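User: I'm preparing a small set of examples for a lab meeting where we compare how different chains pack in three dimensions. I only have the primary sequence for this one, and I'd like the structure in token form so I can line it up with the others. Please keep the answer compact; I'll paste it straight into my notes.
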Amino acid sequence: MDFKALPKIELHCHLDGSVRPKTILDIATKENIEIPTYDLEQLRKLLEAPLECKSLVEYLDRFNIPIKIMQSKESLRRITYELLEDAAEENVKYLEIRYAPTLHTEKGLTLEEVIESVLEGIRQGEKDFNIKANLILSCLRHNGANSASTVVEAGKKFLGEGVVAVDLAGAENEGFAKEFVDVIKVAREYGYRVTIHAGETGIGVNVVDAIKLLHAERIGHGVAIRDLKEAYDLVKENNVTLEMCPTSNMQTKAVKSYEEHPLFKFYKEGIRVSFNTDNRTVSATNVTGECESIGKVVNMTYEDYKKIYMDSVDAAFTTEEIKGYLKTLI
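Assistant: Understood. Below is the structure token output for the 330-residue chain.
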């Protein structure tokens, strides 16, 4: 099966983990930003997480360099635009980009300016490439509920203008959801959809909390439900879609191999799953590569792929009109 030729949906893609290495060099030079190396190949090695990566925490270290050069309106706009170009080049037809706005205010940008800059990149990319996109605002768990509230408030005026959802991301501690019940409730009342990183690092109870306490419609990763029946049953019974990222899960040690990854097993058991990169640069991958890596170890058929694609469309935080269009492509 030629996965590159097939239309694709990506629901879980971090902006700061998907920056072209050459763009980092260019922005660092133009904006006089110090980075560890100005050699492209050495930089690439610093950005990409190895499969020998020991943990999620080590994996997250790879974001330090991109965040340094993502502190101006123009850099945010450009990086977003280039991400849409890269996704469109491999036939991704709909993309949901996520990032944490609070990480991009180090040089004086307001949260509103940070959000607007990325939305400008999306609008320009949609105009120039054959792709649709929306934006998810991630709140960093370790920064607490007050920080999350500032992001929710700042993004409120962009709902309906490209901002579609709120997310909780970063290192995963057991029981994190309890702290964010009130802020996520307010976000839902404003009109944000909800997706939560949970069950990425073996803590299945966090998936239970994300669904029961935060009313998550989608779960980022969710690998750990395989080890907790309550979480597994909740996901299945509530038609919660798992945004699965096989290569990233190997790097963070959530799974040991593509053969062991539960994506296809979950799909066969009636759980909604989607193929995602997590981070195109940090994981050195694209959606085509993720499909190929799983497809070849499970003998995925076209009908299997089509069902996963359709489920991904249904789970997308977009309009019924765009969903209808996306369904005509396969």
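A couple of notes for your slides: The longest strand covers residues 132-140. The chain has one domain: 8-327.

User: Perfect, thanks.
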